[in-house]
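Quick illustration, no need to memorize.
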Amino acid sequence: MESPHYFLVKRNLRRESRQRWQDLALAMGSCTTPRTGKSVYTGVLTAAHPKASEESNLPQLDQVFQVTVRTTDHQGVPYLVPDVEVDVYWTNLYEDPETIIGLYHDHGTSELNNQLRRLFLGVCIANSKFQQ
């Protein structure tokens, strides 16, 4: 089913196992090491919509994941247990994982600009009312 609508949603992994995503990232993801003691795995898992039945026409969607495993803090002090952070996004944009993650993190930029613009226009309109 082709849809003219595109979406990018960050999933909330409330009851889902982080270990499952870590295992998946180790098997399928590409690894970068921004610093010693920190590994970031990114990748895409393409699957049918989780609520789709056999006869439904729901589209395929991508699950973009970013799993960050920290074994030391930024000063190099080791953790007793590795810290695992998992971010998963549902999307139908079909771009590379870095682009999808960047788009999600930049979504607040336009909202902030709109708020500043409204605030500035509001101040300008208020000032013009006082000058009359």
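The beta strands are 8-10, 30-35, 38-48, 60-72, 78-91.
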